[in-house]
Amino acid sequence: MASPRRRLSSLLYSVSPLLLSRSSYSYSSLFHALPFCPRLSLSSSSMAPELQEENYTTGPAEPPQKTRVTVVGSGNWGSVAAKLIASNTLRLSSFHDEVRMWVFEETLPSGEKLTDAINRNNENVKYLPGIKLGKNVVADPDLENAVNGANMLVFVTPHQFMEGICRRLVGKVKADVEAISLIKGMEVKMEGPCMISTLISDQLGINCCVLMGANIANEIAVEKFSEATVGYREKKEIAQKWVQLFSTSYFIVTPVQDVEGVELCGTLKNVVAIAAGFVDGLEMGNNTKAAIMRIGLREMKAFSKMLFSSVKDTTFFESCGVADLITTCLGGRNRKVAEAFARSEGKRSFDELEAEMLQGQKLQGVSTAKEVYEVLSHRGWLDFFPLFATVHEICIGTLPPTAIVEHSERTPKM
Questions:
Q1: What are the residue ranges of helices labelled H in 184-332?
Q2: Which parts of the sequence bind substrate (predicted)?
Q3: 277 among the known binding-site residues?
Q4: Does the annotation list 174 as a binding residue?
Q5: Which of 38, 63, 294, 414 has CA 20 to 30 A from 287's CA?
Q6: Distance between CA atoms of residues 140 and 308, nearest Å
């Protein structure tokens, strides 16, 4: 005799494929679709006349418009994001299969355009070689064409390019488009710091969520288990749609109602990773590195809450918080280049090391440290954040790499 679970499974799979589409369904709709349900045994003659007439005159309902997704950015993380999304748009009937990916056009050493190489090989041969993105990913070097008709925009470029990208897109996207930022960083203006999600919302007039987490792109590309956090403001149903679009068996996404907290975690952890790299380059050991990470997390939390009182303490225990801090301090590009900087005793610049070590990828930690320092200096908060302040001063050569411990040992005047 079959087990109850096996019987239930057989029953579920006997339901009409029209009712069990690839999109989600409710238990109530499933119940009414079962073979023994009286609703399905109703004949047309038993219907009320007005219902028969309505069905006859209106005909079949128009199918709902499928959601189109465009990824704005095609670096290491942008290519992985496109791979995740493309696998789900094929699986979910509510999404259009094709995923466009805007590519900043480059010419490869072979003379071939990067866009042509991506579309021919189905992989980003420069920034994510050896990984198939999905045959439904289409690289496009024309930004306006790439976003044309898109209902959901995924922004994943170096943060210093975003203001220019947004200016190019003003008037080119509809007001009902939903956006999400995977970008770590912020803009500092005369009036104060501006988060990238806010920049997108203000310039384009659209809602923007954020996705951050312990996400080293190359590990996700080969489908190693990872987590991420979606930060949203008010509409949880929109956050759930992003969760649905990104989630796979190896990439688990959780929604949190705290855009600023999630985004600042993803931004500030790169500054702490620079500090961790200094510790590695100076061979100070794991105890010192753990201390730097703890002090860094404390400053991340204090800075976030001083800027935005709405930031939640619990956000720092999500993947975007402590988990992202740990993985970035252990294996991220910011840590790697900062280690080389410390080994050179600060005699080689970050720009030189970035060009040599990252094959076109960009550091975020150094520029973010500068932006954070500007905020701290303008608001008179430098004494509250000795680690953040010291990282920037080492990066610009005011202090030697050894100062990372000497200065961060000071107790903040909170």
A1: 196-204, 217-221, 236-246, 259-281, 286-307, 324-331
A2: 184, 333-334
A3: no
A4: no
A5: 414
A6: 37
Residue 394 burial (C-beta neighbours within 10 Å; 0-12, 13-18, 19+): buried
Token readout for 259 is: 């855009």
Q: Which of 278, 239, 286 is nearest to 258 (CA)?
A: 239
Q: Cα separation of 58 and 143, whole Å?
A: 41
What span, in angstroms and rounded, lies between the C-alpha atoms of 49 and 27? Answer: 30
Pull the structure tokens for residue 299: 């400053």
CA–CA dist 359, 357 (Å, integer): 6
Question: What number of other Cβ atoms are within 10 A of residue 77's Cβ?
Answer: 23
**E strand or H helix that includes residue 62:** none
Of 343, 348, 335, 352, the residue nearest 391 (C-alpha): 335
Helix axes 386-395, 365-379, angle to 10 degrees: 120
In Å, how far are 298, 383, 408 from 411, measured between CA atoms?
12, 9, 8
Residue 199: count of CB within 10 angstroms of its CB? 22
Tokens of 14: 């006997």
- The response to whether 184 counts as a known ligand-binding position is yes
What whole-number distance in Å separates Cα of residue 414 and Cα of residue 406? 19
3-state helix, strand, coil in the chain (%, to 5): 50, 15, 35
203 is in an annotated binding site: no
- Residue range 248-305, pLDDT digits in tens: 999 999 999 999 999 999 999 999 999 999 999 999 999 999 999 999 999 999 999 9
Q: The dihedral of CA 111, 160, 87, 89: what is its sign? A: negative
CB of 399 closer than 8 Å to CB of 391: no
Domains for the chain: give ranges and CATH numbers. 4-257 (3.40.50.720), 266-408 (1.10.1040.10)
- Please choose, from the candidates 198, 339, 347, 175, the residue with its C-alpha nearest in 3D space to the C-alpha of residue 273: 339
Q: Is 200 exposed, middle or buried, given 0-12, 13-18 or 19+ CB atoms closer than 10 A?
A: buried
Low-confidence ranges of the chain (pLDDT < 70): 1-63, 189-191, 407-414
- The pLDDT tens digits of the residues spanning 168-190 come to 999 999 889 999 999 988 887 66
Rounded CA gap, 347 and 52, in Å? 83
Annotated binding residue 73: yes
Active site positions, annotated: 269
